[in-house]
Structures are given as structure tokens and as C-alpha cells.
């Protein structure tokens, strides 16, 4: 007897229309029934990957009021089978033996599916982003994330594209903040990673003396269940944590037209950061390059990247639908796709309801829940009480740079000495880089932003 194809609440064309008009995060329910990727539990992946080693990031399970950046974590290579035995406190765990499961969390994050399953290309088709309106898009343009409870990604924004995230196993809690709150998140480019702007704030346990303006940031929190897909719009800040013993998720970054200009900004940022952090100095001894970056690039290479990015912008222009070449192409899943610029007209009515749930600001609807994909149970956003309770919505949006607050506001010892990183926080602040990009394109790009 032939299998019955589940009827989805939205057609690919309808879903794409919704994505083109969404301006805030939202969760899609009942859209992934029948996707083979939903069988990608850690146990299933262990059988698929066999003895293949993958890199895990490990961090201590401890409560601090400072972010745990990737430069501060430990790294090992192990099989998924060893990872699973480690979570069950068994023996034969390979390199995990130095890290007690009771004291550490582990995260195999940002793993390109094309790399993991290069010898099993049929698995690419288990991920069906085509049903979200992106024809031909599959696991080939996606990344895989496997973690334990407590595994987290530091709060950051992605400079390129928007994001679709499918939860496969376990639950993850997302804490999101709108682009307008960027100043309140105290942005920094140290550690440096192309396409990521990190926050200096530990958003679950913020230090109000060091980051007083964070109390005005508007927290949007949601717990993502298996089978659900979260849409993260362009430049929304997010901190993500695993809240179940084992979690698996798959995501895909959708490129947008405005990414051509963003690549110019990123090339400017790289040139400035590398130049200043490569200079001999007593305060340049920190681990400033994120482990995701393969190596430090020379100034000559960085200027080549900048000229390539400006050339691509000159060729395509902001309002022409013709994806430009990526000057670096080190992270293809975050670059190449068929995403298009989202334009929203006044009066657009989105079909929110049982199949599409907006992620609301906590102060707007503190009791808002997102049902699981079966429609039976409900999970309260932020129900751990760990974040957002003292944050206000509709707060004063006066903009200022994080470099205005380099002094220690918690004592009377006066301002501290300005470090190279303090200076960089000002020089490559998103507002400053945006203006530099405008000037470059006006003078050398043959157009305007």
C-alpha cells in the first residue's frame, strides 16, 4: 500500500511568501511531516558516520556572568558513538575521557552536511527546504548541530542572510533580540569570525554594572521542539542553548541581495581587525581569532578580499537580483542560495495561527506558549526564568556605541586603560562600519547603498 503524503498547511509558494514578509522570528509547525531528516537522531547518525571523527567543542557547566566564547573552550575529535557512550557515563569514550560528563557539555556545531556525508550524497535529499519555497535546496546547503544539555552558542548576530532552523531531536531554547537593540547588546568583533558579531553580554546572567543598557534590550524567547522550524530574520541577535540530554538540529542560511553590501562591510572589518591585532603589543596576546577561522590572513590578502567585494557590489548593485561571487567562500552554506530580498508593504496580513506562531517579546505576552508539533503539549517561552524578566519592551532606543562604556562602572577607581580591543570595539562597531561601507561604495563602487 502506497504511503500517503502528508498535507502541509502551506504550499511552497505560500511559505516563501510568508518568509518574504516576516519581519520578526516565527515558528512553523506541521511543515516537516515525512521529512527523512527527522530520523537523524544522534543514534541514527552514529550508524551513518561509523568511525568518522568529528570535532566537538566542550565547555564547563558553570554559571558565570561572562560569555564563554569559542576561543575559551576545549576541543577534541571523537566519533558520535563515543559521544553517546560518554553521555551515558560508559567506558571507551576516546578523547572524552578527560572531560567528565557531569562537569562538561559537548557540542558538534556548525558541521557541513556535504562534508560529513560526502560519500553518502543521497542523505542530502533527507532535508527538504524546497517545501519552504527554495527550489532545489536540501541538506547540501545545510549544517548539522549535535549537543548535550547546556551546550550553547554565544549571543551573536549573523551579518549574512536569514536563517531556517529545524529541530530534530531534543529541545533548544532561543533567546532573540531585534537589530534595533544592537547597542544594548554591546557588540564586539573579538573574537573575530567573518559573518558573526558577538555580544559582550552573558544574556542569561548579565552584569548590570558593566552593561547597564542591556536591561533595555527586548528579549524574545522560544523553546523549539522536534519537527518545528524557526525562522530567524536578518541581523536578529540570538543566544541558543540545548535543554535536553541530547539535541540535534539542522539549519540553512538563506542568502539575501543585501549580502553583497554586507560582504564589503565584512572585508573592511577583517582588514582593520587583522591589521591591529597583528601589531606587536603587550595587550595583543589574547586568542583573538575564532577557531572557525582557518588562519590569520595578511593585509595584502585582506585588501584583495575588499576589492573583490566592492567589485561584486559594483557589478550587481543592491537592487538587482543577480547573486555576486563570494570573495572568500570559506563557509558556503552561509553564502550561496536562492534567497531574495524581503520587502514588506503596509497592511500585509500574515497567517498566524496553529501552524505559524510569532515569537513575541516576553514583556508583550509573558504567558505566550508554543505548542509542540502534535498540538498536545505546550512549552512556555523562557519558562526557566533565566532571562528577560527585568528587560522591558518599547524601551528608549537612543543609540550609542559600546565604546562609550569602557570604564568600570562598578567602582570609584576611575576609567581603566584603553586596550586594543576597546579601540576595535569602536572602530569596527556596526554603525561605524556601515558608514565606512557607504563611503567606499560611493567613491569606488559606482553606486549608493
Automatic annotation (TrEMBL):
Q: PROSITE patterns per the record?
A: JMJC
An annotated GO cellular component of this protein is:
cytoplasm
Instruction: Name the source organism.
Output: Poecilia reticulata
One Pfam family, short name: Cupin_8
The protein depicted here goes by the name Hspb associated protein 1
List the subcellular locations.
Answer: Cytoplasm
Question: Where is it mainly found?
Answer: cytoplasm
Q: Where is the JmjC domain?
A: 109-269
Cited SUPFAM superfamilies: Clavaminate synthase-like
State the superkingdom.
Answer: Eukaryota
Q: Give the source lineage, highest ranks first.
A: Eukaryota, Metazoa, Chordata, Craniata, Vertebrata
| Coiled-coil region | none
Amino acid at each position: 500500500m502506497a504511503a500517503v503524503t502528508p498535507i502541509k498547511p502551506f504550499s511552497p509558494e505560500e511559505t516563501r511568501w510568508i518568509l518574504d514578509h516576516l519581519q520578526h522570528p516565527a515558528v512553523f509547525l506541521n511543515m516537516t511531516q515525512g521529512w527523512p531528516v527527522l530520523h537523524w537522531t544522534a543514534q541514527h547518525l552514529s550508524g551513518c558516520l561509523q568511525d568518522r571523527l568529528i570535532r566537538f567543542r566542550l565547555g564547563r557547566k558553570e554559571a558565570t556572568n561572562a560569555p564563554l566564547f569559542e576561543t575559551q573552550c576545549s576541543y577534541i575529535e571523537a566519533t558520535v558513538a563515543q559521544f553517546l557512550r560518554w553521555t551515558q557515563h560508559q567506558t571507551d569514550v576516546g578523547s572524552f575521557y578527560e572531560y567528565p560528563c557531569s562537569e562538561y557539555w559537548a557540542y558538534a556545531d556548525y558541521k557541513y552536511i556535504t562534508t560529513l556525508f560526502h560519500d553518502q550524497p543521497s542523505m542530502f535529499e533527507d532535508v527538504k527546504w524546497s517545501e519552504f519555497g527554495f527550489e532545489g535546496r536540501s541538506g547540501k546547503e545545510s549544517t548539522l548541530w549535535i549537543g548535550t544539555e547546556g551546550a550553547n552558542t554565544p549571543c551573536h548576530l549573523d551579518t549574512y542572510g536569514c536563517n531556517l532552523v529545524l529541530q530534530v531531536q531534543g529541545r533548544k531554547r532561543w533567546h532573540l533580540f531585534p537589530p534595533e537593540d544592537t547597542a544594548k547588546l554591546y557588540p564586539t568583533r573579538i573574537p573575530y569570525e567573518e559573518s558573526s558579531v558577538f555580544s559582550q553580554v552573558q544574556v542569561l546572567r548579565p552584569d548590570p554594572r558593566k552593561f547597564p543598557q542591556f536591561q533595555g534590550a527586548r528579549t524574545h524567547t522560544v523553546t523549539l521542539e522536534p519537527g518545528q522550524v524557526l525562522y530567524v530574520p536578518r541581523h536578529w541577535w540570538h543566544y541558543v542553548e540545548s535543554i535536553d540530554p541530547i539535541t540535534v538540529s539542522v539549519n540553512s542560511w538563506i542568502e539575501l541581495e543585501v549580502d553583497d553590501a554586507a560582504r564589503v562591510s565584512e572585508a573592511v572589518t577583517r582588514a582593520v581587525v587583522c591589521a591591529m591585532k597583528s601589531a606587536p603589543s603587550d595587550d595583543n596576546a589574547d586568542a583573538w581569532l575564532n577557531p572557525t577561522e582557518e588562519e590569520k590572513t595578511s593585509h595584502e590578502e585582506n585588501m584583495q578580499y575588499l576589492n573583490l567585494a566592492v567589485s561584486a557590489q559594483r557589478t550587481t548593485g543592491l537592487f538587482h537580483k543577480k547573486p555576486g561571487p563570494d570573495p572568500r567562500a570559506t563557509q558556503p552554506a552561509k553564502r550561496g542560495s536562492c534567497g531574495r530580498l524581503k520587502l514588506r508593504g503596509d497592511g500585509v496580513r500574515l497567517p498566524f495561527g496553529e501552524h505559524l506562531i510569532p515569537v513575541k517579546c516576553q514583556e508583550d505576552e509573558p504567558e505566550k506558549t508554543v505548542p509542540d508539533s502534535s498540538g498536545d503539549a505546550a512549552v512556555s517561552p523562557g519558562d526557566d526564568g533565566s532571562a528577560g524578566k527585568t528587560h522591558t519592551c518599547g524601551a528608549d532606543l537612543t543609540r550609542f556605541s559600546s565604546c562609550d562604556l569602557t570604564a568600570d562602572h562598578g567602582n570609584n577607581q576611575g576609567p581603566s586603560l584603553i586596550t586594543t580591543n576597546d579601540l576595535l570595539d569602536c572602530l569596527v562597531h556596526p554603525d561605524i562600519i556601515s558608514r565606512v561601507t557607504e563611503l567606499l561604495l560611493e567613491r569606488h563602487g559606482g553606486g549608493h547603498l
